[in-house]
Amino acid sequence: MADQAELKPNVREAVPFFGVVDMAASLRFYVDGLDFRMTNSWRPDAPDKVRWCSLQLGGASIMLQEYLPAHQPKDKLGQGVSVCFMCEDALEIYRSAVGKGLSPNRPFVGNSMWVVSLSDPDGYRIDFESRTDVPEETEYDPSIHG
């Protein structure tokens, strides 16, 4: 018979880890634009120069690390990468992002969820999704959907 410690799940969460070219631009996008909060950072070069960080929004986290110039990939970053954040109200995220100067795609309903999509400065696709009973393929209209 297994003891209780063996029955507890070992893996707790998956945290996307993005390599970025310009950490300052990424922090403006995630922290200033989308309200992520920095929970940890690594600053080996100078106190004001973040090279790695952990960011959190509600119960979701991501990590960012800036490439050293000599190690920056030649190919376009973010291609084919999409992270979906499940939330209570994706339209609230949309309105807040627009109000802070970001340019999310127009929200639409797909798979019974409002989908709000943005691309970060490195081309990673970020989706915020929330359940809805609005018909499939409906596009957001502020005069109807608030």
Short descriptors:
single chain, 146 residues, alpha/beta, 2,3-Dihydroxybiphenyl 1,2-Dioxygenase, domain 1, 4-stranded mixed β-sheet, 4 helices
Apparent shape = globular
CATH domain class: Alpha Beta
| Fraction of residues in helix | 10-25%
Percent range for β-strand residues: 25-35%
How many strands?
Answer: 8
Element-level helix/strand string: HEHEEEEHEEEH
CATH superfamily caption: 2,3-Dihydroxybiphenyl 1,2-Dioxygenase, domain 1
Low-confidence stretches: none
**What's the end-to-end separation, in Å?**
56 Å
* H/I helix tally: 4
CATH architecture: Roll
> What oligomeric state is this?
single chain
Average pLDDT figure: 93
CATH domain topology? 2,3-Dihydroxybiphenyl 1,2-Dioxygenase, domain 1
Rg over alpha carbons: 18 Å
Largest sheet: 4 strands, mixed
Helix-strand category? alpha/beta
- Give the domain tally: 1
The side-by-side strand order for the widest beta sheet comes to: 1-4-3-2
The gist of it:
Helices cover 20% and strands 31% of the residues. It has 146 residues and is α/β, with parallel strands linked by helices.
